[in-house]
Design goal:
Elements: E1 4-8, H1 13-24, E2 28-33, E3 52-56, E4 71-74, H2 81-86, H3 88-109, E5 112-118, H4 145-165, E6 169-174, E7 177-178, H5 189-199, E8 203-206, E9 212-214, E10 216-217, H6 218-229, E11 237-239, E12 244-246, H7 247-258, E13 264-267, H8 282-288, H9 296-308, H10 312-316
Parallel strand pairs: 1-2, 1-4, 2-3, 4-5, 5-6, 6-11, 7-10, 8-13
Antiparallel strand pairs: 9-12
Helix pairs in contact: 3-4, 5-7
The chain binds nicotinamide-adenine-dinucleotide and uridine-5'-diphosphate.
Uridine-5'-diphosphate (UDP) binds at residues 80-81, 176, 187-189, 192, 204-206, 211, 213, 247, 269-270, 273.
Amino acid sequence: MAERVLITGAAGFLGSHLCDRFIAEGFNVVAMDNLITGNIKNIEHLFGNKNFEFYHHDVSKYVHVPGEVDYILHFASPASPIDYLKIPIQTLKVGSLGTHNLLGLAKAKGARMLIASTSEVYGDPMVHPQTEEYYGNVNPIGPRGVYDEAKRFQEAMTMAYHTYHDLETRIVRIFNTYGPRMRLNDGRVLPAFIGQALRGEDLTVFGDGSQTRSFCYVDDLIEGIYRLLFSDYVYPVNIGNPDEITISQFADEIIKLTGTKQKVVYKDLPKDDPMQRQPNIDKAREILGWEPKVSRAEGLKITYDYFKSLSEEELYSKEH
Ligand code: NAD
Ligand code: UDP
């Protein structure tokens, strides 16, 4: 019998790529999502597959899955700043109550549970690049606190289930990831810039553009998560691409890539926007034998082709 994996947040950007990977590896996939920020189109192609089932459910409410479950990957959560500012309470609930429900399910089923944590647990970091040992610099009551603290609680709860209930757990700290199936209007910098270029609008750089990020292509991330799940390492592991760039430089790259004639316009920097971010991935290299393979130039080209293939309606949609 094939092993069975429950993926929450399955209709989202990362969840849908995880579904594809686990189906390709021969697993039975149980996908769960309440579609609050996801899109069913991301997994529609799997609906005819006999190894795939979908539950439309909010995981912050009691989660019931009949039958055996061997692995749970908890990826449900709004993930972009404009999403979690719009739905702050749901964000806190899915990271806390949702995680608790799924840990309870994992315990009842004897499943191994992996949670999607984030570089946001480091907040606006005072240590650079960020190692897993750094405790972070988070403002709990700032606008990003609803996401950051939910994720920090999620890690604490997961470690507690490991320590006190002997549950098999894994924690991945994901750094900015991009690729096909990101939502064009989710407010994250890459879809924002590419969407603006495609619509003939100016590119909006927040602040003076000197803040940095390090962007990882989605296939690299999925490979890292896959390896972590099947490793025996229970502490958090950073997965990301250490190739760091300022947001101004990033805007220039998108202008070149798209050939847009538009210019950059500067807007206020959102409160608590981290000034620098770069993963230290020594642990992933040592423990998982993993490092990213896809350069930003290659990854951006694939992602741009995806966004170009969207309909006019999707390009101008303000939904979500
Ligand atoms: P996404 O918004 O595309 O996907 C999240 C999915 O979760 C959506 O389909 C949404 O409908 C679903 N969801 C939200 N709340 C739910 C609930 N209560 N019940 C059921 N489903 C719910 O975001 P993403 O980029 O795919 O992020 C997935 C996960 O990875 C999140 O947990 C996020 O915090 C984490 N993460 C992502 C990144 C990144 O760069 N993409 C970085 C760090 C961490
Ligand atoms: N950003 C920007 N213009 C935009 C959207 C985002 O300059 O239209 C900046 C944002 O202020 C941040 C960086 O790009 O410094 C990355 O933002 P994103 O929302 O993608 O991710 P996060 O801040 O969560 O890393």
